[in-house]
Recover the amino acids of this structure.
């Protein structure tokens, strides 16, 4: 499996290089800085950070070399073997739809970066976007993270007789499904939330027969209490691969801490570093909307030590990061974080 991951990374780096070469954003023998490369590519301002992450990845692997702020090719990059994507995704346990979608996105990358086309439009063209996102999340890596999260959720005690659970950014419900199975015998009030009614509606159809379920919209960047989440009302907050979307992470973590009882539990999963494959695919969804402020940092993801500091500043103690870096599952770059609210 790790071999397939490495091959997928190699193909994706080749796609980045090919896009820069074929668009003449960075020709062979030329030297340009990131701003010039984005200008030559015609990148929309909201996506400029993606290209800068490409340049960092290509430099890190030695395909580009840097002199001051300018970048140039170390050698002529080989054309990527995009035709290998179906085999690689299959070996990694993803459904076939993911290879088809990634191939389609690669073919349209210049147009996507220029905002002549949006990734959401491509995903909608692939069918029900809830099912598309679910397919993306149906892989052994995410499944293992969700199962580990669910096992820890089972061990959370309730301040009263009923376990009160708030899920943030529930999306296609993959994390929800695992946690509800773990809590099957527990008396619970489970509030599924997402910023999109597309996902809350799909979750309501999927989980409507589950006892104690509630569904509602919630924006990570607004006051939780103004959105119906009372202070100190939750025993457990769950967030599956969503907290990186918060525009102001310290404020978001503060809102989560306020919503929890003292000693309450926060369980969340996150990627901890760039993934070259996703930089040519799903990471385009991390760009801000066209009418929103630009990203303040090109770094979309944080290392565990940075999460520890951010959680501590918000009133949490980080109890566990899983899996350990030495474990084979860690190669996918996803981690489960288990934190507890410190009593005030």
């Amino acid at each position: 499996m790790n071999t397939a991951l490495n091959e997928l990374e190699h193909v994706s780096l080749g796609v980045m290089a090919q896009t820069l070469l074929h668009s003449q954003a960075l020709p062979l023998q030329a030297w340009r800085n990131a701003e010039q490369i984005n200008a030559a590519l015609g990148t929309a301002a909201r996506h400029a950070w993606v290209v800068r992450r490409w340049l960092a990845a290509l430099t890190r692997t030695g395909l580009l070399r840097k002199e001051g702020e300018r970048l140039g090719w170390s050698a002529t990059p080989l054309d990527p073997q995009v035709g290998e994507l179906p085999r690689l995704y299959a070996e990694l346990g993803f459904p076939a739809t993911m290879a088809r979608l990634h191939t389609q996105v690669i073919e349209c990358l210049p147009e996507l970066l220029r905002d002549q086309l949006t990734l959401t439009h491509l995903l909608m063209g692939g069918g029900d976007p809830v099912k598309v996102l679910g397919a993306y999340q149906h892989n052994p890596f995410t499944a293992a993270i969700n199962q580990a999260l669910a096992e820890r959720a089972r061990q959370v005690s309730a301040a009263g007789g009923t376990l009160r659970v708030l899920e943030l950014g529930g999306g296609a419900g993959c994390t929800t499904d695992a946690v509800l199975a773990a809590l099957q015998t527990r008396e619970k009030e489970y509030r599924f939330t997402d910023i999109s009614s597309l996902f809350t509606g799909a979750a309501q159809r999927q989980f409507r027969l589950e006892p104690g379920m509630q569904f509602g919209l919630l924006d990570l960047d607004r006051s939780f209490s103004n959105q119906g989440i009372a202070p100190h009302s939750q025993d457990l907050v769950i967030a599956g691969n969503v907290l990186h979307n918060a525009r102001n992470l310290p404020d978001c973590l503060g809102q989560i801490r306020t919503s929890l009882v003292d000693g309450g539990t926060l369980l969340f999963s996150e990627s901890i570093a760039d993934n070259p494959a996703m930089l040519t695919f799903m990471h385009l969804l991390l760009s801000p909307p066209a009418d929103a402020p630009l990203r303040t940092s090109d770094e979309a993801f944080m290392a565990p030590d940075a999460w520890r500091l951010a959680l501590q500043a918000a009133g949490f103690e980080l109890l566990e990061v899983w899996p350990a870096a030495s474990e084979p599952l860690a190669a996918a770059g996803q981690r489960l974080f288990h934190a507890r609210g410190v009593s005030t």
Notes: The chain has a mean pLDDT of 93. The two ends are 45 Å apart (CA to CA).
